[in-house]
Structure formats: C-alpha cells, structure tokens
Batch of 2 targets.
Target 1
Amino acid sequence: MQPRQLGLAGFALAIAALPLLPVPPFWITQLNYIGLFALVTLGLVLLTGAGGLTSFGQAAFAGIGAYTSAWLSTAHGVSPWLGLLAGLLLTAGVALLLGWLTLRMSGHYLPLATIAWSLALYYTMGNLDALGRYDGLLGVPPISIAGISLREEGRIYWLIWACALGAAVAVLRLLDSRPGRVMRALNLHRGGGITMPEAMGASTFHYKVVMFVLAALLAALSGWLFAHMQRSVNPSPFGIKFGIEYLFMAVLGGVGSVWGAFTGAALVKLTEDQLQVLLPRLIGTAGSYEIIVFGIVLVLVLKFAPEGLWPIIERWLPQPRRGATPAADGASAAPLPAREKPARGELLLQVQAVRKAFGGLVAVNDISFEVRAGQIMGLIGPNGAGKSTTFGLISGVLPLSGGEVLLRGQRISGLPAREVARRGMSRTFQHVKLVPDMTVLENVAIGTYLRTRSGSLAAMLRLDRAEEQRALQEAMRQLQRIGLADQAHVLAGNLALGPQRLVEIARALASDPSLLLLDEPAAGLRHQEKQALAAVLRQLKGEGLSLLLVEHDMDFVMNLTDRIVVMEFGQKLIEGTPAEVQASPAVRAAYLGTEH
Ligand code: ADP
Ligand code: MG
C-alpha cells in the first residue's frame, strides 16, 4: 500500500470509530455537517478544480435532492430510498438540460445560468403551497437501513460519512483514468482548453456535461441526507448564498484535490460557528457578520495561497512515490489495438486547392500538394505566409473557404478535429499543450484515447484497470521510442521546452496515427534541442512513419525532408526536393525579403 492509501484507510477508520468513543453529541453534529458540505464541495473539485467550470447552483441541486424526497415521503409516504432515486433522476434531468444549453458556449454562460437557476428554484420552493412555501415541510421521516432507523445523529453520521468517503474515492478514481485525463486537460486556468483533447479524439462537450451532472448528483445526495437528518426542509439552505458558500469552501480548501473539499468544509463549518458567537459579542449587535470575515479571508487566501489550504497541509504529509503508478515499466499487458498501416508510397494525404479567407485577406490561396506514406513533407515559408492557417485547415481546426482535404482517399475536410484524429491523423501544437500538473506518462496516455473505451462509471468503479494498464504501457512504449522514458514520472510542467515538444510527439504517436502533423516543432528551441528533435524525427522516418512538418526554420527542414512546399503570401511558391528548393532564387528572395 502507498502511504496515501494507508492515510485514507486510517482516516476512514478514525471516522468510523468516532461515535463509539465518548465524543460529545455537539461534535457528531458538526461532523455531520462537514460530511454533508464536503459531499457538495467534492462535486466542485471535479467541476471547478479539474474542469475549470464554475457553478453557483450546487446548493440548488442539493435542494432538489432534499425537497423531492421530503415531499414524496411526507405527502405520499414514499420510502426515502425511492425518494433518493427520484431526487437523483430529477437532478440529472435538470443538470443535463442546463449543461446542454450552456456548456457549448464560452465559460461565462454556465456560472450565469447556475445563478439564474438557483434564484428560480429558490422562489419556486418558497412559493409553492405543496412545498409549504417559506416554512417548508415538517415531519420528514428518518432513513432506515435493514429495519434500523437512522433517527439519531450518531447513526446517520455513519451513512453521511460512508457517502462522503465513497464519493471521495470515486472522484479520485475518476480523475486518475481515461475520462479523468480529458477532464483535467480542460481547465483553462491551468493552461488547458478544448483544442488539445479534441485533437486527441475526445468530445470535450460530453465530458463537461458528465462533470456537471456528476457534481449535481453529489449535491443532490447531500441534500437528501440533510433533509432526512434535519427531518424538515425549507428553502433557505438551498439559495444562492449557500451556492456561493460551497464555492467558497472549495476555493478555501483547494479545488485541486479531493481532500481540499474536506478541508474547506471543515474550516468553514467550524469557524462559522465560532464567528457567529464571537462577532456579535465584539460588535455588539447580532447579524450575519461572518460573511464579511469570510470575504476578507477569501481575498487573503486567493492572494497568499491561490491553490487553497490543502496543498499547504499536504506538504507535511508523506509524499506519494511517483512511478509507483501501475505503469508498465516491465511490459506485460496486451498491446492496444493498432491501425492497419498504409503501404510505403501509398497516397496518404491529398490537399486539393484549399483556401481560407479572413474577411478580405486570403491567407491561404488554393494550395495543393500530396503526402505519400513513408515520406517527410515540409511546408515552409516566411512569417505570415499562411503555414499555420494551412495546418489548421488540414487538421480540422479551421473551416475551409474552399477546396478539399483527403486522408487515405477519405474526405476529412469539414470534419471536426476529433473525427480527423479518428481517421488516423495526429498532431502536435506550436504552443505546447501539455497538462502541466500531470506526469509525462499521463500526458502521453491522453494520446491513447481513441484506442481505449473505458467510461466514467467504469473508472469510478475501477473496472478500467486492465485497459488502463495497457494504455500506460503504450504511453511508456512511445516515451521509450523518443528516448524520454526516464522522465515518465516527472510532472510535464517541470520539463524544458525541448523535451516538452518531444512529449507532444510521443502523445501524438500514442494514437497510432497514419500521418503525423507537426506545427513548427523547432520554434523556440535551443540549438541542441533542435538537434535532438531532428534525430527523433529522422528515427521515426526510418521506422516508416509519415510526417508533415510545418516549419519556419529552413535549415531545420533541409536535412530532414523528402519534399518541400514553399509558401509565400498564401500561395505556393515552389514544390520540390530540398536541393531544388535550396537552389531556387525565388525562395531565397522570399526568405531574404522578410527575414533581414
Ligand atoms: P504563418 O504561420 O505562415 O506565419 P499564418 O497562417 O499564421 O502564417 O497567417 C497567414 C496570414 O493570415 C497572416 O497575414 C495573418 O495575419 C492572417 N491570419 C491568420 N489567422 C488569422 C485570423 N484568425 N484572422 C485574421 N487573419 C488571420
Ligand atoms: Mg505560424
């Protein structure tokens, strides 16, 4: 067992044993609330910490869980367990609808939608006669398990903490899996976004919806427990104020870690109680002054510990051994499925009169060329020639204004980037897009996305381990191929630019592409790093891989490529062997004209 797993087991044991010890009921009540808050906040660790999405509506989702079961059990005598099922279904439905409406749009729509949704639900709860208006519903029955009623706080405690710890384990497992890698790649605040995961074949919209629905379900579960613990419900704990407070707990504790949720929940609950007693005494009048204190604390935390408080606590704990991941150092699992490879010389990529106009500017003007299997094709030209735009047209990132692109005879122009990837084209990025707080190995494993299948549920239940082993083993194989295996367990953000570019190549290779597209791989590299990169590319060519290299640096491509297309002002200037290109006065003029 790893120290972390031991720690988790110890924590779970201590939590389980607590009510058996002479602990005052006050503390059991406090811990119940902490468990309930942590459940909601865990959803935010997934949504905000991993995915970079913000929701103010988690309290409102808790409200659905609470009210559904409270109403069903009081008005219709339905069992709380059926009430839970109904509450989760209703929550999933609402979250799906909200997510479907807002998650395709840019980042601000989701927070706004969750605010609107919180307000709407709050006033609905407060104005429906059937739900008791602002007085709420009284006489909610306790939950019972196998005939044992969880009427006392010391009993429902176990259920609350079983749920909270179970959810923590599920979220931990999810984040360390095929879907989890995509989720963690989405976070804009950590340099992520949708471009890279889409290029690796993942539907980022799908994963945003999954995260949003899961977070909503965790909140609903918390609300359900709360309703049957309190034995009553009213609208106030489910309003926007609590929606903000959950976000506050997440940020305070640290959204980057599952344990940040527990830290934040505990800190807020414990200090809130102290402040509610202390502040009125200090100030002399009663009121919700703790909100002001929390506001100040939040600003201070964001200033001095932007990752929240858990990472500070974590420094005092034993560090996990990186490399103890079940990464396939000694390869044993079956390899992932491989693509049927094109024969050497087969026509692989056909770029046919592609065109791109930005308003009046024709950035790419009817460019045509072909790449055959086993070839390294270079696309060069001075700055502003239209290389990157051409790259975007081929890789499915930019819509074409005209022309067609075919891969192995199939039309790929007009397809989204993830479909282009599925058909066998993989790419790297001019501005490196690695997930900095994931290891090099995990980053490369994102490349195996299209060759694996495990979904979020399988990941949470750990039914994905055999496939995960195969994916990590494949990632390791690609790292060995480019000579970076010894860096496998380093965080990608700690590498220099040269090795980072190589990691991007390994990630692209992990998708088993027929054609690899490299976007200015030498840009920004030092001389030695360029040499190392050239050596790797030459080796890949030797292995029969086909490459399209878009590059500004003419010297870099000269010794590497079989053929070169030179662009200038959006047009094809010349196509030929490196020697022909080098001898061309037009090319020299183009480069001299803009370079010096
Ligand atoms: P290169 O990669 O060869 O340096 P680009 O393809 O980036 O050239 O750009 C070609 C031309 O298209 C440039 O004049 C650039 O300013 C213009 N351009 C590129 N992208 C856009 C865009 N999104 N909107 C408007 N103009 C663009
Ligand atoms: Mg460019």
Note: The first strand starts at residue 137 and ends at 138.
Target 2
Amino acid sequence: MNKETTLEDFLENQDPEVAEIVDAVAGQSIPIRHEIPHRRGDAGTQNIYGEDQKALDVWVNDLLTHKLIETNSVYQVVSEENPKPILNPGGEGEYTVAMDPLDGSSNVKSNNLFGTIIGVYKSRNPAEKGRKQVAAFYKLYGPMITIVLATEDGVYEFAKARKTHKKYFLINEQLRFPEPPKLYGVGGNPKKWVPEFRYFVDLLRDRGLKNRYGGSFVGDFNQVLKYGGFFGYPALLDKPRGKLRLVFEGNPMSFIAEKAGGLGSTGAQNILDIEPREMDERIPIYIGNMELISELEKLFTVCKDAREQY
Ligand code: AHG
Ligand code: MN
Ligand code: MN
C-alpha cells in the first residue's frame, strides 16, 4: 500500500460492517477533541465499577454508542460506562462492539495521553471470548490523533490528516513489536506487587529497559508497540485481579498485541482464551513482546509449583 492510502481506501477492502464501525468512531475525533477543554471535571455519577465517572467519559460514551448503533451493523454496544448492553432499537445488526470510550480519563486533568478502545465481534453474544474478535482498534489523542487497527491480517496505524485531506492516512502497516525490547511500564503501587513480579521488573531494569509509564493503557501500550517491551497492570497483594477490565481493555488490546507478534496474558493464561464470567470482570494484564510475556508466565509457574510442593 502506498503511504498516502487513506483509512477510507483501506476500509474498502475490509468487511463492510467492520468498515462502518471503524468509520463511525474515526469520524468523531474532531468533535471529541474540541469538547475536551469543556468537560474536564467529574460527571457526579458512577460506572459499573463504582468508579466516579468523568464528564468526558459520559459524553464520549453517549456520542460513540449513538454513532455505533446508528450504523445498523451493530446489534449492541457493551461499554464500561453503560450498566447494560445498549441494543439496536430495530433489532438490526449482527455485530457486538465492546468499548472503553475513554481510557486514561484521569489524564484529562493533566492533559496527558488518553484514548478509546474498541473490540468488534461478529456475534450477538455480549460476552464472547476475546479470540472471537474480528477486529480491534484504539484511538489515541496525542499530539497526533491516531488509530491503531488490527484486522485478521495485521496491525495498521492511521493519522488524522490536515483539514483539507480525507480523514486519516496510513502511516504504518504490518506493525510488529520491535526487538530488542526497550521499554517497560507498570501500574499499581510497587509495594503491593507480588514478590515474583518485583523480581521480574528488576530483571527488565538489569537488562537496561527504560521505565515509561503514563497512566493510560492506550498510551503506554502504544509506546511498547513502537519501541518494544512490556506493559503490566499486575495482580496486587490487596487486588489479586488487578485493575484493568477483561472485556473492555484486555481483550481488544490483546487481539492487537497478538496480531503484532506479541502476547497478552494474565500471567497464567492467554487473555484471549478466557471465557468471560461477568461483563465487569477485572484481570491482571501483562502485554508486549512475546518472549518477555512467556518468560513472565514461566517465572510465575515455577513460583506457583515451588509453593505447592508442601
Ligand atoms: P479508565 O480511564 O478507562 O478507567 O482506564 C484507566 C486505566 C488504564 O488506562 C491505565 O493503565 C490505568 O487505569 C492507570 O491506573 P493508575 O491510575 O492506577 O496508574
Ligand atoms: Mn474508561
Ligand atoms: Mn480504560
């Protein structure tokens, strides 16, 4: 593909419903970008996790839910900001969209990176395994507005163009996690990391990987995808399931990671193979270069086996 391929050109070769879904989200970037300065505070409401919603969480969630349902390809939208699935009123559509409408919303206050995470399923079941996704993408609000889109045949990155151009144009294709890995980013209070995880992070440091953590999964993942390395929001001593959500964050990002030659794991299993038990399920997430994630899984297994000897 030539570098001036637009998102529209690219989507012409995709499943028409997937194209409609990507376009519905891509088309809202400027209205969302312009709204940010006017919705910096709290909404005064809570989401399904009992977390205080930011005004922008709610506004982006309602806007994107509406635009997605309007496509008529979408049977339902499940979102971390909606207590239950929002169904297509006419019962149309064969696709389910799982959405984190605003990932990294605590970064709005500090004007740091945040974005939107989308998983696409050709199914009316709201809680399919992540492996059943047909596409996944995230939009990143940074100096550029970019979309990183994983389809069956690889990972592509598009940048929002100048006003005079069509919406987005291709800046990277067949993205793969680079080797050797250069960065690691880890959430949670290090005092609450389990000992074997602390040992693993020390290993990364000893190998010269640089610490980059910015407080949004999309922003931190994007750095690892570009420079190679590891991102984790780990199990914590007081929160063994960690913080991030299986359906709205883990599955879409693990689909993208796998299409880029990497891996998303709970430390015990591939995230994409988890049968979701409830929509708001949280999981520990370790994601990035295949070798590093596999090394962590082996370390966790050895420690578990050693403990179970007696
Ligand atoms: P969200 O804004 O959708 O709730 O997601 C925030 C998540 C994730 O984006 C990020 O990796 C993590 O929370 C940051 O958590 P800390 O603020 O505890 O570092
Ligand atoms: Mn969110
Ligand atoms: Mn999030």
Note: The two ends are 58 Å apart (CA to CA).
